[in-house]
Amino acid sequence: MGQRKAPKDGDRKVGRRALLIGGTVAAAGSAVLARDELARLWWRVPGVEKPRKEGEVDYAGARWVAASDANWRMADRPDDYGIDMVIIHVTQGSFDSAVKVFQDPEHGAAAHYIVRKDGHVTQMIRELDVAYHAGNRDYNERSVGIEHEGFVDRPQDLTDEMYAASARLTARICARYDIPVDREHIIGHVEVPGTDHTDPGEHWDWDRYMKLVREAARTATPA
Question: Considering the entire predicted model, what is its pTM?
């Protein structure tokens, strides 16, 4: 996540985006682009929006705490944007401070999940929605973001409980969206193109983490 305010990824409100794309389509005469955009936007028409239950989580072990709706964008993933990636973050702060900033509409960023040092998992944004967590619009649209409580220069923050809980969560996400369990599809924030973040940092044990994810994936189900 980082200590400073993270920038939004350039998302516009639907009406503005639709108007801009509509103008481009008209000018270029591109029916293909128009169909693609309509496929992504049709469900946002009043009365068509998918029903949602307040407080519903995607991961059975998670507790729901809502992020500010200024820090994510409503979507219908994977129907409108395919999900093929999990991005690993470190909060650069406490669990409580991460929750607080993700609830702050001025912060401009939030992840889908936060994993606490004791292994507790909190979900703040639904997986079907686009969280502003990667600092890259394309990566935001195609990924699920998982924050981990702690600091990148404090290896003691990366506890056994955190690794195990996060690995189970990532394995379940991979099973749900048929994401390969490898380092091309499970990446760190530092690996996102255009980012200036360094998390999860040099102390994050990727070999250990991927082994745990693979072990959890053997029994993980999409539900």
Answer: 0.83
